[in-house]
Amino acid sequence: MSDSIDDDIARSLDASVGTQVVAISYDVMDAATAILAERLPTETLHAMKLASGEHLAAMLATAYLGAVPVAVDVDGGVDLTFSLKASDESHLKTLLGRDDAEFADFEVKSVPGTFREKYLPAATRAMERREKQPPAHLAKVVSANDVIEVAASMIGKAAGQLRDKSSPDRARVAFIVSHFFDRPYVECFQPLISQALAPLKPPEGVDAVWMYFAPSHVLVWSAAGGWSDLLLGSFTEEENGPEHAYGMELLQYYEGLFLERAGIDKPSPFFFEFTVSGPDEE
Question: What's the count of helices (H) and strands (E) in the chain, helices before strands?
Answer without folding.
Answer: 10, 8
